[in-house]
Amino acid sequence: MAAPLHLHSSQASPLPNSIKELSDSAGLSSIPFLYASRSSEALLTDVVEHEVPIIDFSLLKKGTPDQRSQTVRDLGKACEEWGFFKVVNHGVPERLKDTMVDALGGFFDLTEEEKGEYTRKHVMDPIRCGTSFNLNVDKFRFWRDYLKVFVHPVFHSPAKPHGFREISQEYTTCMRVLAMDLLAGIWESLGLEESNLTTALDLHSCFQIFIGNYYPPCPQPELAMGLPPHSDHGLLTILLQNGVDGLQLKHKGNWVNVKPHPNSFLVNTGDHMEIISNGKYKSVVHRAVVNSKSTRISIANAIGPSLDAVVVPAMELVSDGGSSVAYHGMRYREFIEHQQANPLKDKSVLDRIRL
Ligand SMILES: O=C(O)CCC(=O)C(=O)O
Ligand SMILES: [Fe+2]
What we know:
Helix content is 33%, strand content 19%. The protein has helices at residues 19-24, 40-44, 57-62, 65-81, 94-108, 112-115, 164-189, 194-201, 271-276, 315-321, 332-341, 348-353; strands spanning 47-49, 54-56, 84-88, 127-131, 145-152, 207-215, 227-230, 236-241, 247-251, 254-257, 265-269, 286-288, 296-304. The model is unreliable at 6-12 (pLDDT under 50).
């Protein structure tokens, strides 16, 4: 095995602006030392293959009352036991998914100069792209470029590539509608009134962020990491992938490889679902690994409460369940800033507000 290349920013060739630029450079057979982020813990934990629960969305929307009730129970079980599930029969056209992935690929293909308008931004800037997670705090670099765009309550979009704005508006609207229907089913599975929650979380001005991830082939995938283990900050995240494996989630102490499933979305519960459900539905730690053969593109749409909401556990779950309040509130905006401005690690922000 080739040893990682020692390359520091003080050396003659500076580190690239993007992982795409590095991976495009011809003859790369080992990775710069700064990208060898895998800890011995990560290498020692077993990786197993497992199917995550599958939810038939059409039964939630158009099934008989019995089918809907069963699907709500299945949703609850999936959230409680896995915090991850796949959604099939979701009604989002294949064409829209493919065009969105292509448009995102087009963004990453822009020149560094064209992307430059959106780089080195503050974590709460509505359009931001870059490499790794946050270069101000990353000890190692991750094998990943990203584009993050705030798409609700105010829709933003980079000006290029041509057509990105239209397609991302259509796609992210679909994702929000899907998320609201799934949230309604999840509230029901918790025995909570949908209208109470819509008010408590101010879902009419829910915060939605589009996160595009680009992981090019890596000559030493066993040493590098696309994204380190973390949980997502919102209520739900809906993930689309370009058919290349790479997502792993932590389940009962093992890393589980999640295989792409044709025409499905992968959904996971975030930290704010854990808070509102008082810990019944936990956010689950996941990571993105890389491979030596194919470029992986993923698109996460994270849906959370309003940025101004201070979410606390639903009182019905605390009093009826006979448990005590497990988290104190933190304004959602502040929660996100903490996560984005510090090294990305497990459930570090949620751990700060756990009682
Ligand atoms: O690329 C992936 O599969 C994971 C992306 C992810 O976890 C995120 O963007 O929060
Ligand atoms: Fe994530």
